[in-house]
Protein 1
Amino acid sequence: MVEDKARFDYIVVGAGSSGCVLANRLSASGQYKVLLLEAGGPDTNPWIHIPLGYGKHFTNKAVNWLYNTTPNPEWVNRPVKQPRGKVLGGSSSINGMVYIRGHAEDYNHWRQLDNPGWSYEDVLPYFRKAQNQERGEDEFHSVGGPLNVSDVYEPHPLADAFIDAAEAAGHPRNNDFNGADQTGFGYMQWTMRNGRRCSAAVAYLKPARKRANLFIETRAHSTRLLFDGRRATGIEYVQGGKTKTAHADGEILVSGGAYNSPQLLQLSGLGPAGHLRDIGVDVVADMPDVGRNLQDHFNIRMVYRCNRPITLNDAVRHPIRGAREVANFALRRRGFFAMGASVAAGFFKTDPALATPDIQVGITLFSAEKIGERLHPFPGISFIVRLLRPESQGTIMARSADPFEAPAIRPNFLHAPRDGEAIARGCQMSRKIATTGPLAEYVEAEHIPGDDVVSDAQMLEYLRHNGATSFHPVGTCRMGPDDRAVVDPRLRVRGIEGLRVADASIMPRIVSGNTNAPAIMIGEKASDMVLADNN
Ligand SMILES: Cc1cc2nc3c(=O)[nH]c(=O)nc-3n(C[C@H](O)[C@H](O)[C@H](O)COP(=O)(O)OP(=O)(O)OC[C@H]3O[C@@H](n4cnc5c(N)ncnc54)[C@H](O)[C@@H]3O)c2cc1C
């Protein structure tokens, strides 16, 4: 444990997807003393590393912040679970391991919003630097990086049928969602190495842990940034019931994720002045947009009852098959235990006039009444239908000055009418795939939402009552060139010296895909900027 009042060159708050990258890259030369503070514990729970363990972490407070949304009218006033990793690796230690970067046009849009250095051409080298693509190197992919990207280990007849059915329904095939074109259907790629999760902690911290200049403190909850005027000079944190401080001669990098980074800034006096005063926090700088611009991928699960016992639901119910799965994983690292959340997916447009896909649908080889609950007692698969480019935006606001109280999370999903229309249409188009030739041969019936939900209007009503999040919150410490932006395009907090935010919260707009690879890319790019600006 580091001593109270210790001094460092860099302090990184949060050992998640972005924070692990920063800790590794900033300490690599041996020149700088780096402190990494993580509120959660070490990643020693074996289920973190067994891919199928993903399902166990939704309700496990040992590794999860277990947040909930604040009920709002569009959601018929029901709270919705918001899991976030609270452990070394952050959300990359509890996520579904899907490796998707988003659309090239997402990043070109960031650049058009006047953020130099963030076009697709600019960020591609950082995706490549991070990556060890098992398929080998090409224009879009690289080998030799810390983050292992694997193919789905074994094809599955239901995934094959899903892709074939999509093709029969008029969609193209796509063998690489991170390649030249995102559109189409195909198998996923996963952040796994030899059937084990490759979290940011495994990829970036494990190889750096023994460095004499890297100090990793777990169960160390950062409670407040310390300032000398407008310069961030240190951090206060609570560890083992004791309040300690650490001081940075260089910079402090806040990488607490899209919910916790804005909360920490607000509790430190950086945020909407009126709100800060209301909750009893002294204002250091009035920054109205800290905690605004929250975006996430609204989603809905559709469940299909199958006519053959070849899903995970069947394997867990059948003792001999279950034992075979255990042996298959123990001996070969294959089978259901080595499976990410989704095995195959598709990207498509709900309106041909759109420039890029607005829906992602993924297939999982299991089903349950609710996510994280017991699997169905019948063969089942699920479609996860996700709205990729939502117009609705929400907020994260500290509820009080207490750093241990969860922030108020208001995603405002479906606030923009277009969002509801698009995802309702996306569900109907996904339905067609389930009832088309190759997949229809396996599908007995639609269990969720079921035959009662027919029209788009009924679908929208169903979505309001049952929709959820894809666990991709971003944007709450928005990067931009304008005065209200929280960070500038070099991720420096506006008007404050020695402080940057580097994690998914800096995205000006959500990307059209999953958000782990982008958060890792942000960590890579931020590391380069920090080192360049301090030399
Ligand atoms: C259940 C789930 C499934 C997902 N599935 C996928 C998927 O399949 N593919 C994909 O690409 N993305 C997926 N995601 C999203 C992806 O994992 C996240 O977008 C990404 O990990 C975010 O990275 P981050 O660095 O911004 O934050 P995080 O990885 O969440 O890291 C933040 C870290 O900061 C720590 N922290 C926060 N506050 C403090 C504090 N005050 N003091 C000290 N430490 C603090 C946290 O404990 C955490 O470790 C999923 C997410 C979840 C939760």
Protein 2
Amino acid sequence: MPELPEVETVRRRLAPVLEGRRFEQVEIADVRLTRPFDPVEVARELEGERVALVDRRGKYLIVRFESGRALLVHLRMTGSLRHAARGSLPADPHQRAVVNLDDGSDVAYRDVRRFGTWHVLEPHEVDDYLGRRLGGEPLERTFTAKRLGERLADRRAPLKAALLDQRTVAGLGNIYVDEALWRARLNPLRPAATLDRNELRRLHRGIRAALEHGLARQGSTLRDYRLPDGSGGSMQDEFRVYGRRDEPCDRCGTLIARTQVAGRTTWFCPTCQPEDPAQAARSSSRRPSRSRRQSSV
Ligand SMILES: [Zn+2]
């Protein structure tokens, strides 16, 4: 559930409290978190490490230690992290791990569905591990419409599926793909390789705008996503399509539709995001607004 804006929000909050701190004592109470490695051994490995940097790639939160090792945290569906003074966190049946820091505070990890993961990587393993799983970072300058086009070329999969693939662009999930496609006025079922240059530019802009909007609202809290101080984000109040079936489109008033693409529930505006844009253009050119539409091209 947490996507790039949510994980980045967590990173920004955790960085100032973790950087420079030493992991004094670590307790991992869930074998699934560190699978296939023994949680007790992983906890021992982490003890004594001092945090150099809290980083992020895609949906991975990366705690980089001065030793060069890294702890990769993936929140998956329902993972969240809390930071608080020692002893001040309420008892929580879903708490899976807790790190005692050397300044007397704790970072606790909670996860209701238990799909989240903690992996400790050696210095030489980090780049390769992430490089094999993730494409470029959509908010970095190196992410361009041209680069996006290269990633989508030769892909017959629907746009929605291609964008959910973390190797296309890192950090997008079900929410922000739907939001980006609405902004780009592209149908989620369009074969990914069929976009022209203008459409690629729209998609590039749409991805960035959707993510930046999410970041500005500290992410979206639908169920379990929380900031490290326990508060929630507010992006869920500003979705354009996600979860808004039968509500009017903000752009044209058509009711938002819901469908399934690549096994994922998908929301879109049937008017703004037509399945066949050529047909939509032909039918709109028959309307009286033709001259205005042409002059705006
Ligand atoms: Zn619309």
